[in-house]
Write a structure and sequence with these properties.
Blueprint: E1 4-9, H1 17-31, E2 35-43, E3 57-63, H2 69-83, H3 85-88, H4 105-116, E4 122-125, H5 128-137, E5 143-147, H6 157-166, E6 172-175, H7 178-185, E7 193-195, E8 216-220, H8 229-239, E9 247-251, H9 257-266, E10 273-276, H10 282-288, E11 291-294, H11 303-310, E12 314-318, H12 323-327, E13 335-337, H13 342-354, H14 356-370, H15 375-392
Parallel strand pairs: 1-2, 1-4, 2-3, 4-5, 5-6, 6-7, 8-9, 8-11, 9-10, 11-12, 12-13
Length: 393
């Protein structure tokens, strides 16, 4: 019999790797017969970026797309907070939460009230600060699963200490990588820690086009410092005379967009690099491109690398913690450059462009490797994991 499962997420209406992963997870749980409700703390637009199964319920605690009691009160609280910081500053959300400025004492109270009155069998929480609240306020009878999308080492020391203190109250902690699992096992009961990587979308291998691949380098993600697009642009500037017959297309949006565009113009790269809006059509674009570059300064997992491999792209990434280091076997299914090194990244790009044999090897091995992350395979991991936690409670 299916369980009533709530997935607590920050903003499921926002494009991003966590949102993609949550969408896939919700669809998987629905596929295997569970009743799934997504609870998004914030709602900033009317439609989700990714597609959910029809049976999945979507709820939000604060809906900025309509003027109602919660959204108006939250807006007022944030205005007040700018003047009287201590009056409206969250008391229970960890102060080192990366998006702390998005919260007020009012939004925090809504989250806690929601958790105290949970009516489900199981809750899966997807953000460290929410995980801490779930551990403290969710009812005892509810099965609690913490899914970590952020590297443990990237949390502040204070947040790490809170994680170690409260994650012991979870029935399971799901890590995306073996490295993070090893870290959690040094602090928590090992039987509570499982590795379940992110999955490719359902039917990802079935969607094909007849288009031939072109001399296109592609990259995609949020235009924020951690994603390293400034490093990519500076790298291309070093080799622009060697890749005149190539185009570099970067897809995304974010607060660094103007800075990135200025960097492109400063280095006279307008004819090579183009910034494109966030797209729902990335799979088709990956079928047309030859090389995918992940220039992140750090990356929890890097599902887009797997997406690119599955579409026969040769992938090049910085050897940053922790995803690329686990996903890429250097010169076997991809190329790794020294973290944040412009020179090394430029060398790796030229290496794959100028060596057809290497390109063919990376393309073939990457595609074979990507099959490990097929939707049905990861769905079975979740199915077995949920069944096992049922048996131990």
């Amino acid at each position: 019999m299916g369980k009533n499962i709530v997935i607590l997420v920050h903003n499921v209406y926002y494009m991003g790797g966590t949102t993609r992963a949550v969408t896939n997870l919700a669809n998987m749980l629905d596929d295997i017969g569970h009743n799934v409700t997504i609870v998004s703390v914030f709602k900033g637009q009317r439609d989700t970026f990714f597609k959910f199964n029809e049976n999945i319920r979507l709820e939000s605690l604060i809906d900025y797309t309509t003027l109602n009691q919660h959204s108006i009160t939250e807006i007022i609280n944030k205005k007040i907070r700018k003047i009287f910081t201590q009056w409206s500053y969250p008391q229970y959300i960890h102060p080192d939460e990366p998006g702390i400025n998005q919260f007020s004492r009012y939004s925090e109270a809504l989250i806690i009230r929601f958790l105290k009155h949970l009516k489900c069998d199981m809750i899966i929480s997807t953000r460290a600060s929410y995980n801490l609240l779930v551990a403290q306020y969710a009812p005892e009878h509810v099965i609690k699963i913490a899914q970590e999308h952020m590297l443990f080492e990237k949390h502040s020391q204070a947040l790490k200490e809170s994680i170690i203190k409260y994650y012991s109250k979870f029935d399971l902690v799901i890590s995306l990588t073996q490295k993070d699992k090893d870290i959690y096992e040094s602090h928590l009961t090992s039987s509570k820690i499982k590795v379940i990587p992110n999955a490719l979308p359902k039917g990802y291998f079935n969607v094909k086009t007849d288009k031939e691949k072109s001399n296109i380098i592609i990259s995609a993600g949020r235009f924020e410092k951690e994603k390293g697009f400034d490093l990519l642009i500076k790298t291309i500037a070093l080799i622009k005379d060697d890749i005149r017959d190539w185009k570099v297309n970067i897809y995304g949006d974010g607060k660094e967009k103007a800075v990135l565009q200025e960097l492109i113009e400063k280095n006279n790269l307008n004819e090579i690099i183009t910034l494109h809006p966030t797209t729902k059509n990335l799979p088709t674009l990956l079928e047309e491109s030859k090389i995918y570059i992940l220039p992140s300064r750090y990356e929890g997992f890097g599902l887009v690398l797997i997406e690119a491999m599955a579409k026969h792209n040769a992938v090049v990434a910085y050897g940053c913690p922790v995803g690329p280091l686990e996903l890429i076997n250097d010169e076997v299914n991809g190329l790794l450059a020294q973290a944040e090194s412009l020179t090394d990244l430029s060398n790796q790009i030229l290496k794959v462009i100028n060596n057809q044999s290497l390109f063919n090897t990376l393309q073939h091995n990457g595609f074979e490797f990507s099959k490990k992350f097929e939707y049905e395979i990861i769905r079975n991991l979740w199915k077995n994991t949920i069944e096992s936690v049922n048996k131990t409670l």
